Amino acid sequence: MEVRYANHPEEIKRYTTDELRKHFLVETIFEPGKVQLTYTHNDRMIFGGVTPTNEVLTIKLDKELGVDYFLERRELGIINIGGEGAVVLDGVEYNMQLRDGLYVGRGTKEVLFKSKEPSNPAKFYINSTPAHHTYPTVKIDINKIKPLEAGEPENLNVRKIYQYIHPNVCESCQLQMGLTMLAPGSVWNTMPCHTHERRIEVYLYFDMEPDTRVFHFMGRPNETRHLVMKNEQAVISPSWSIHTGTATSNYTFIWGMCGENITYTDMDHVKMDELR
What we know:
Layout: E1 2-4, H1 17-24, E2 25-26, E3 34-40, E4 45-51, E5 57-58, H2 62-65, E6 74-80, E7 85-89, E8 92-96, E9 101-104, E10 111-115, E11 124-130, E12 138-140, E13 148-150, E14 159-165, E15 176-182, E16 194-195, E17 199-206, E18 214-220, E19 223-229, E20 233-237, E21 244-247, E22 252-259, E23 268-269
Parallel strand pairs: 1-3
Antiparallel strand pairs: 2-20, 3-4, 4-11, 5-10, 6-9, 6-11, 7-8, 7-10, 9-12, 13-14, 14-15, 15-22, 16-23, 17-20, 17-22, 18-19, 18-21
């Protein structure tokens, strides 16, 4: 597990492109047969990919977290963006089709990940945050989610927002997680943009062709920076930073949030004439 430390917003004014990418961009999320995780000190979120092939995989972070098992004091969100697989929680198996999700409550001792076909492995994207209470585990079938529809063709931002771990779907301590799909011909997400000082957000961009690129914008509204991202890469957005992007084609992204407030609509909107 790689560790990323928190950065003061004044620091990034002096960052080179390489330094900006080193601190905020995670270039490899899924690697066949491996668990790839990043721990950010921003609200202590853990995120990354679990890609089982022939062997069943699990997450072991007892020493790193000072616990006896991974979810002793944490909750977990999972969304599968690969082939068919399954997650086994303390002996109970949950089948996971493409874009199915799972909320796992604190105190679950054994979490196993497996793929049905090693040649087309499941790609389990995970977000985990500290938890103070145990809420029930919930399987989230994307076909049962009624998406929020937003955007206009003239603004190039027609999209469907699927809320997975959200008060409308299941209870959680501080983790929120969902998926946004942009329609063909739409490329902008989260514009007009916003910040939320009360929580961090991490984006995973995917469903992109090899040559498609996302230009992800971050930083304080009056002094923005950008990162150029490829398919299946993630970016950390501290609470003081905007998080918005445009691309050379449409795409899908998973958003995960945690922090002081779990209210989805709690955000500080940025006026367009404030952006620099």
